[in-house]
Write a structure and sequence with these properties.
Elements (H helix, E strand, L loop, with lengths): L2 E4 L6 E4 L6 E4 L2 H6 L3 E4 L4 E3 L6 E4 L7 E5 L5 E8 L6 E10 L13 E4 L1 H4 L1
Parallel strand pairs: 3-10
Antiparallel strand pairs: 1-2, 2-5, 4-9, 6-7, 7-8, 8-9
């Protein structure tokens, strides 16, 4: 079942192949300030449906993660990163993290959220 997400103004839209079944709330400095809840997908499961020019990107420290947001309204939309599930950066298996708070017609409260201690991990 395709699920769609969009920023506040609609300039940045995307879709993923399936509804998220779980999410993370990262406590690192940037995620805490952005307030997103993240669900993870492979690049094949994600499709940006608006022009890439509408997306703004922020990178910090190691520059391994591309933190995307709408260039018009500023909503946190999605991130691109290596897979960190093993504790190491796996560049052969990139991940797309979507902010489930901006999914259209989706009950965010129905998804269990795990806290990721990014404040002390990175």
């Amino acid at each position: 079942m395709t699920v769609r997400g969009s920023c506040h103004c609609g300039a940045t839209r995307f879709e993923v192949t399936d509804a998220p079944t779980e999410a993370t709330r990262c406590t690192c400095s940037i995620c805490s300030k952005r307030g997103a809840l993240w669900a993870y997908y492979t690049p094949a499961q994600f499709k940006l449906t608006t022009p890439v020019e509408n997306v703004a990107t922020y990178q910090w420290q190691s520059r391994m993660v591309k933190l995307h947001f709408c260039g018009t309204c500023g909503c946190t939309t999605f991130n691109e990163s290596p897979d960190f599930s093993t504790g190491e950066a796996d560049f052969d298996n990139p991940k797309i993290a979507i902010n489930i708070r901006i999914l259209d017609d989706f009950d965010v409260d129905a998804v269990p959220v795990t806290v990721l201690d990014g404040k002390n991990l990175w």
